[in-house]
Specification:
Elements (H helix, E strand, L loop, with lengths): L2 E7 L3 E8 L2 E8 L8 H12 L8 E7 L5 H14 L4 E6 H10 L4 E6 L3 E7 L2 E4 L5 H4 L5 H14 L4 H11 L3 H10 L3 H7 L1 H6 L4 H17 L10 E5 L1 H5 L1 H10 L3 E6 L3 H9 L5
Parallel strand pairs: 1-4, 4-5, 6-9, 9-10
Antiparallel strand pairs: 1-2, 2-3, 6-7, 7-8
Helix pairs in contact: 1-2, 3-13, 5-8, 7-8, 10-12
Length: about 280
């Protein structure tokens, strides 16, 4: 029996599970995204995580990752994994399919990601049949951690947020406007950086300004993504830290648009274990 390795990788972190004879080993490393990392950079992350240069064992590897929607990008990840696990069978899929399988298994519904980034799909019989393109943190990703952070930072830097919110932000975050601009426009992974400010939003989420900011972001997520499926399916599920920590605001918005939230998972990895070990598949 081959060992199975499951990867669930967002832009911030990668959850890894090694499954063999009902034993599960847990690992975690930084996020892997072929839009921002080349093959050698991804290989270095993997090698550091697994603590070796090459493994001659045969594994069944299922990698679900952000940025893996296009074959060219999948090949970057596949090449890095093949270098570390040269005798293994490797499947690369995007993180959205991983979220859908974790949430819905073989059921039909709408599956969504609200973490550092955002995405959604209409899912039937184990497959994605429609996907409104998320477009990333610059053009889309409404409701994501990066989007929430961007809304907050923009309000802070433009002086739109209440004065007490602005003063407290600089006091708690210990950063200047110049440092924020440098991080966003001159350093790598600006989406990760912006998403870190979602923790600040969470700490003050009961204040009116932050409630309105969160609801605005989630409203845009539903309006620009979910309602476009134009489906009779109203059951919806979410994975991701933003969905998990802002459940109340998410439920308010879902109800506004006539959807019923069936499940919210902080991480899809446990659902993926179920899917790949017990769920019947074609």
């Amino acid at each position: 029996m081959k060992k199975t390795i499951l990867f669930d990788s967002g832009s911030t972190k990668t959850d890894i599970r090694i499954i063999y004879n009902r034993q599960i080993t847990e690992l975690q490393c930084v996020g892997i995204n072929p839009f921002y990392q080349n093959r050698d950079e991804i290989y270095h992350v993997l090698r550091t995580c697994f603590g070796q240069d090459e493994n001659s064992e045969e594994f069944e590897i299922y990698f679900y990752g952000a940025g893996c929607s296009f074959e060219e990008k999948k090949e970057i990840v596949r090449s890095a994994l093949s270098r570390l696990f040269p005798k293994s069978c490797i499947s690369i899929e995007n993180d959205l399919l991983g979220a859908a399988r974790a949430l819905l298994q073989q059921k039909n519904g709408i599956a969504c990601i609200l973490g550092t980034g955002a995405n959604s799909c209409l899912y039937q019989k184990g497959k994605i049949i429609k996907n409104v393109p998320p477009l990333g943190y610059i053009l889309g990703d409404e409701g994501s951690g990066a989007n929430l952070g961007k809304l907050l930072v923009a309000d802070i830097l433009k002086g739109i947020a209440p004065q007490k919110v602005i003063l407290r932000f600089y006091e708690e975050e210990k950063c200047s406007a110049e440092e924020i601009m440098n991080h966003i426009y001159k350093e790598s992974f600006p989406n990760r950086y912006l998403a870190t400010f979602s923790k600040h939003i969470y700490r003050h989420k009961d204040e009116l300004y932050f409630q309105n900011l969160i609801l605005e972001a989630f409203d845009n997520f539903f309006k620009r993504n979910i309602v476009q499926y134009d489906s009779t399916v109203k059951e919806i599920g979410f994975v991701g830290s933003i969905a998990f920590h802002f459940t109340h605001q998410l439920e308010i918005t879902a109800q506004k648009y006539g959807y019923s939230i069936q499940q919210i998972l902080k991480s899809p990895i446990e659902g993926l274990i179920t899917y790949h070990t017990t769920s019947p598949r074609e």
